[in-house]
Amino acid sequence: MEEEISSEFVEGSDDVFRFGDHLELNQFDGLPYSSRYYKLLQERKKLPIWKTRIDFMNALENNQLIVVSGTTKTGKSTQVPQWCAEFCLSAEYHHGVVVCSQIQRQQAVDLALRVADEMDVNIGHEVGYSIPLENCCSNDTILRYCTDDVLMREMMSNPLLEHYGVVVIDQAHERTVSTDLLLGLLREVISQRPELRVVVLSVPPASDRLVAHYGGVPHLRVEAMPSAEVVYSSGGRAESFYAALRLVLEVHRAQEPGDMAVFLASEQEVSCACSILAKEAARLSGTLGELVPLAMCPLHAGICLPITEDQKKSRRVFLSCSQSEDLFWSVDTLNFVIDTGVEKRFVYNPRVRASSEVIRPISRCRAEIRKQLAGTAGKCFCLYPEEMELSPEIPASILEANITSAVLFLKRMEVAGLRHCDFISRPDPEGFMQALEELDYLAALDDDGNLSEIGIIMSEFPLDPQMAKALLASCQFDCVSEVLTIAAMLAAPSCFVEPPVGMVTEAMRCYMKLYHPEGDHFTLINIYNTFKSSQEKPHFTPEEWCQDYFLCCAALQTAEAIRAELTDIMKQLELPMSEPAFGTKANTLNIKRALLAGFFMQIARDVDGSGSYFMLSTKHMAKLHPLSAYGAKTPQLSPPEWLLFHEYTLCDSNCIRTATPISPQLYVLASASASTPSGSECHSSPGSPATLHSTAAALEQFIQMVPQYFFYNLPSSESKEILQHILDREGSANRNGRRKPQPVATDAPKETEGSRSSDRCLLQ
C-alpha cells in the first residue's frame, strides 16, 4: 500500500488531491500524511542504510544490543532512530520511547528537525531535542535527540533510563568521555532491564572494536558508497595551513562546480582561515563567482544554510576541524574536500594538573570519513603522503582528559545502584587516582571513599567539581550572586574576541576599561554586569556594545543562560541565596574565600617579582596569560605576589589563566624571605611582629579554607615554609582544629547566629 500511494504522489502533482482518494494516516499522530512525506520517503529509500531495514528490525526484536556501522552520509543518524520509534510503537510504548545521543548540540538540533520533517510530525511534539540550556520536547515526544552529556545527567536521576525503550548511541567512534561512560554503564543497565534495547552507531574500523568488546553482538554493516578521487601530496606538514588556502583559490579559479570542505588543525586556524579567505575573495574577479568562507565547527554552529536563488554562482568553503565531519550530512553540494591531515588535541597530565596542546596526525578512521564526504564524483585532496602512518582509530578522550568530573559522576552512579562501568578503554590509573584525591580534598568523598552529602550536591551542577565546591561555599559567605556569575562566565566560551590586524592596541584599551583591580574573576563579573546593563540602554544594542569592546555577544548570551540554569538548580536544591553586593570590601573578601574553598589546589607565588609564578602543588613555573588584568599587555597593574588561578595550560608559554590575588600585602614577607638568608640589608622590617601580624591576617583566608592534610602533602618549597610559619603562629586554635571561617559582615542588617545557621549549608 505504501509503495502504491508514494508512487502516485511522486509521479503526479505534489499539491493536488482528488476528492475520495484514500489518505493514509500517520501512525504517530493519526493525521493524514502530507505530499512532502512521500517525496521524502523516496529520498530515504535511496540511502545506503535502507537496504538493511528488515535485517535491523529483526535484530532489534531479538537482541538487546546491536552495532550498526557505516560511513558518513549513509543515513544512519536519521533512519535508525525512526525505525526504533516504529519498534516502540509496535509495543505501544509499554517499555518506553526512543532517545538518540549526539556529541554536538547543533547536530542534535539539525537531526531532530530533519527527522520530524521525514516523519511528517511537529518538532517539539512527536520528535524533539534536548541540548544544554534548551529543551524542545513534550510529554508526547516519542523520539528525542540529545547530547551525550544531557543523557548522562538524566541518568543521575533515572539510572536505569526507565523512560526509554530504545537508547541509540550515535557517533560512538568519536570516543568522547561522555559517550564512553554511557556505553560502559548501559551494559549493566540492560542486564537489569531485559526489555531495553541499545543501538550503537559507529564507522568502520571502530565498530569492530565495539563488537569484540561486547562479545559478538549482532553487527550490521552498511554498504559504503564509492569514495571520491583521492589526490595525495608529497610535501611535508609544515605548511599545510597555507597550502590548503592556496588550493582553495586554485580550485575556485578552475571554476569546477561544487562547494568545498577544508579540514584544519584547530578552531583557531578555522577563524584565521576565514579572515584570510574573506580578504582574498574580495580581490577575485567577479566572473569567477562569489567565494563564501564559512566556519563549521563546534564554536560556530548553525551556519550550514542552503544556497538561495540569488546565490547560485556562489561557492561555499566550509572551514572545519576534528569532530565536525558529521555536520556535513545535509550538504548535498560538496564536491571538494581538502584535508590537512592534522588535528589539535588537549592531553591532560595528572602529575602537573595541566593540559598541553598536541598537534598530531589524524587517525585512519577520520581520514576515511573525510574522503567519503566528497561523494562519488568529487575529489579529496590529502595534504600528506599516501604512505604516512596513521593510527587505526580515534584515540579515546577518557585516556587523555581530566576525568575528575567523570569520576564524580561514576560515584553518583554508585549511589544510584550502578556500581560497575564496563570501560571500552580503562582510564589511566594515575589519572584515576589523581581524580579521587582531588575529590577527597574537596570533601566530596567520605572516609570510606563513597560520595558524601557535599559530593552529591556538587554532582547536581553541570560544572567542574572545583567550581561546584566554590559555588556551594558562596552560600556560606553571602556572595552567591557574584560566584554564580563567575561560574557562568568560566563555563561559557571565552568572551574575548581575537582583534583584527592593526586593532590590538584599541582592543586592549577597551579591555582595560573593564578590568577590575582585584583580579580576573572580578573582571568577569564586571564584564557580565556591564553587558546586562547594555541591554537596558535605548541608544545601542548589546551586539553593538560587544562589537565596540571587542567582546563576543554570543558567548555572553551563553553565560547569561548558564547563570539562569545554575540559579534554577540552586533554588531546586533549596540552597540559600544572597543579594548582590559587588563592589564592597566585605563582598570582595567573601568572593575570594568562596573561590579558595574550591581552588585552594591552584595557588601560585611570584618568587622574584618578575611575574614568574611558582605553583605550590606541582612546583612548576608559569607566566600570566597576556589578557590577564596583570598580564604583559596591561602594564598598569603590577603582578600580585600570591594568586589563585582557574586554569594552567602547558601551551602559550605555560600560561596561568584567570588569576586573582589572594593577598596584596605579601610582597614584604617574600622580600624578607629572599633577602635575609643572603645577608643583604632589609630596609623594611618584614620580621617585625606588626608586619607578621598583618601578613598572617592576609593569609588567614587561605589557611582557613585549605584542608590540613592537603597542606601537609604539598611538596617542600620556600612558599610552603612561609605558609607554615603563619600556621605555627596560629597557635592552639589551629592545633585543636581549623576554625570555621565566617562571612565578613556587609551593610545588610545582622542576623542572629541561630537564624543564620538555620539556612546555611554545611561545608566544612
From TrEMBL:
A molecular-function term among this protein's GO annotations: ATP binding
Matching SMART domains: HA2
Catalytic activity field: ATP + H2O = ADP + phosphate + H(+)
Q: Where is the composition biased (Basic and acidic residues)?
A: 748-764
Q: Enzyme group, top EC level?
A: hydrolase
Q: What is its EC number?
A: 3.6.4.13
What's the family?
Belongs to the DEAD box helicase family. DEAH subfamily.
Its protein name is Putative pre-mRNA-splicing factor ATP-dependent RNA helicase DHX32
Species whose genome carries this gene: Electrophorus voltai
